[in-house]
Amino acid sequence: MKIRTYKAQTKWLEGTKAETKIREFKVIVDEPLELKGTNTAPNPVELLLTALGGCVALTYHGYAKRCEVDIEDLIVSLEGDMIPGVWVDKAGRERRGFKQIRYEVQIKTKAMEEKVLQLQKLVEEKCPVSDMLINQIELKGKINII
Q1: Residue 93 Cα distances to 86, 96, 136, 139, angstroms
Q2: Do 48 and 81 contact (CB within 8 A), yes or no?
Q3: pLDDT recorded at residue 54
Q4: Which of 49, 72, 90, 115 is the most buried (most CB within 10 A)?
Q5: Span 66-76, average pLDDT
Q6: CATH number for the domain whose boundaries are 43-134
Q7: pTM score above 0.85
C-alpha cells in the first residue's frame, strides 16, 4: 500500500494570528474577539469544521456516480460544541476539543431515495477526515529550539 504524505507549515505572525502554507496556498488563522483575537480570520477549530465539510462534500461527489446519483446541488452545514476549559469523556479522560460535531447534508437530486441513502452510507465509510475524527490516530510532536 502506497502512503501519500501531506505537508503544511504554520508560522506564528503576531498575537493570535498564524499563517499556514499548503503547497502554493496560504491560510490565515485568528481567534474571535471574545478569545482575545482580532477576528480577521477563522480560528483552528472552525477550520477543522471546514475540513470536515469539504471532505464530506467531495466524498459525496466522488462516489455519486457509483451509486447512480446525479448531484445538482449539495450543502453541508456543520456545528460543533466545545466546553470552555475541559470536559470529561466516558473513559474519564479530560478533553479540550469538540465534545460533539454535527453535520447535515442537503442534496438536490432526482435520484431515488434508496440510491441517495446508499451514497450516504458510502460517504460515512469513506470520508478520510471523518475517519480521523472518529478513530484515534497517532500524533507525534517534537520541538527544535533555534
Answers
A1: 10, 10, 14, 17
A2: no
A3: 97
A4: 49
A5: 97
A6: 3.30.300.20
A7: yes
The 10s digit of each residue's pLDDT in 84-133 is 777 787 888 887 888 899 999 999 999 999 999 999 999 999 999 999 99
> Which residues lie closer than 8 Å to 115 by C-beta, 6 or more apart?
67, 68, 69
Q: Which amino acid is at 79?
A: E
Long-range contacts, 35-44 (Cβ 8 Å, 24+): 41/17
Cell representation of residue 136: 484515534
- Sequence letter at residue 26: K
Q: Percentage of the chain with pLDDT > 90? A: 84
Q: Among 67, 132, 58, 141, which residue's Cα sits nearest to residue 101?
A: 132
